[in-house]
Amino acid sequence: MAHITEKDLWAEHDGIRVYGRLRVPDAAAPLPAVICSPFFSGDHETAGEWAAPLAEAGIVTCAIDFFGGTPHSRSGGRTTEMSVCTQAADLSAVLDVVRALPEVDPDRIYLLGQSQGGFVSTMVADERPADVAGLFLLYPALVIHDDAVGRFGSPDAVPQTYEMWMELGRRYAVDALAWDPFEHMSYPGPVRIWQGDADPLVPLAYAERAARTYANAELEVVHDAGHGFYGIRMRRITEQIVASITGA
Which residues sit opposite 65 in a β-bridge? Predict the structure, then answer.
C-alpha cells in the first residue's frame, strides 16, 4: 500500500473557485489520475470513498466539491445555482489543474462519476475527448433529462425554485431539459458502466442504452444492487477500475 499525501486543490472558472481533495501516492511519477465526481448532494468526502482506495493502489486522485453541490460545499455557492452544466464547468476546470500537476501523466487521466457525477463526467468527456483516457460510470443518473421532461415538459413551466431532496433553482431543470445525454455520447475512448438492476432511481435500461450508444463501452449489471455500491461490491469494482488503469 502506497504512502499517500493529501492536500487541497483549487481550480477556477468564471469567478468560481472549485475545491478538490487531492491524494498523491508516493510513487515514481508520472502517474495515472482519476477525478472523482460525487452523486447529487454529495461532496469530496463521499467521492473520496472511491478516491482513497484508488490512491492506495498508486493512482493520483482528486475528489470534487461542486459549486452549490451541497449547502456546505467548500466551493461555495447555493444549491439553487447548481446544475449539470455548472458541474461540468467545475469538472473541466479541475481537469485543467490535474493535467498540469507534475506527478500526473496528462495522457492517463480518467473520470469517475457516481450518479449525477456520472452524468456530468459524460458531458466533459464529450466536450474534451482528447483529455480523457477513460470513463468509469457508477450507477450514472442518465435519467436526469427525462426526469426533467416528465416534471416540467418545457422551460416555461419551471419555477424559480423547487424541492428535489434539497432546494434547487430554475437553472437546474432548464439545463437538464436542454441536455439529453444520449445525443452527446461521441466520446470514443473506453467506457465502463456499473449499474444495479434493483436501482429505484435509475432504471437499468438507461445503462443498457448507453452501452449500445458509446463506441467502446462495457456494462456490468450488479445484481440486486440499488442506487449505490458498498462493501464487497465496492471493493470488487475498485479492483476492476485499478486493473483497467494499470493493466494489473
Answer: 19
SS3 201: coil
State the sign of the Cα–Cα–Cα–Cα dihedral 123, 126, 131, 134: positive
Q: Is the dihedral of CA 64, 192, 166, 151 positive or negative?
A: positive
Q: What's the rounded Cα separation, in Å, for the pair 248 and 163?
A: 45
pLDDT tens for each residue of 158-216: 999 999 999 999 999 999 999 999 999 999 999 999 999 999 999 999 999 999 999 99
Neighbours of 145 (CB within 10 A): 20
CA 229 – CA 237 distance, rounded (Å): 9
CB neighbours of 150 closer than 8 A, spacing ≥ 6?
none
In this structure, the strands spanning 191-196 and 134-138 are parallel
Kindly report the pTM of this predicted structure. 0.97
Cell of 244: 483497467
In DSSP terms, 107 is beta-bridged to none
Alpha helix ranges (H) inside 63-198: 84-99, 116-127, 144-152, 170-178
Cα distances from 150 to residues 82, 134, 157, 175, 176, in angstroms, run 20, 31, 11, 14, 11
